[in-house]
Amino acid sequence: MTLILDRAATTPRTLISPALFVRLTARIAVDHPEHAHQADIIMEQALAFLATCAANPGAGLGPSDTVDIGWHTFILYTPEYAEFCQRIAGRFIHHNPDDNPADSGTGNSLADTIKAMEAAGYRVDPVVWPTSADCSSGGGGKCNQCYAGCTDSPKKTAVG
Questions:
Q1: Alpha carbon distance 132, 10 (integer Å)
Q2: CB under 8 Å to 39, separation ≥6 — which residues?
Q3: Residues facing residue 74 across a β-bridge
Q4: Second label for 12, Cα 20 to 30 Å away, from 41, 49, 126, 132?
Q5: Residues pairing with 152 in the sheet
Q6: Is the C-alpha dihedral spanning 115, 117, 119, 125 positive or negative?
């Protein structure tokens, strides 16, 4: 499988068309008015996160609560999301919530995701990625990957 991922593209919004970026950020602003002022940041970081998942299949990476808003929003635009996934990952990037995130067993933390994003060449915006000092869940300085333990499926075989 050949991934079409330009690691030099450190501006995540370039991974989708400007028109789609505007649509997604507008949807975040409407659906999450408390985050309207940072809709651009949320979507950029969600795109960087997804591109990082594409480059690290099976790693069980997960978003912060705020970045998960961007992922959920993008998934609502199913045809565009499916095309994006195929183009950057060669597969559909599934959003798999863990029904019991405290016992997920992935061993990954937000710090692991942040390291992977930085290694992929993306800037991690601390506005939407809490530091370990900001996290109280997960214990030992580790955070749940999002409120529901959402990850790109590390345990299941990717379909697509």
A1: 24
A2: 25, 26, 28, 29, 32
A3: none
A4: 132
A5: 95
A6: negative
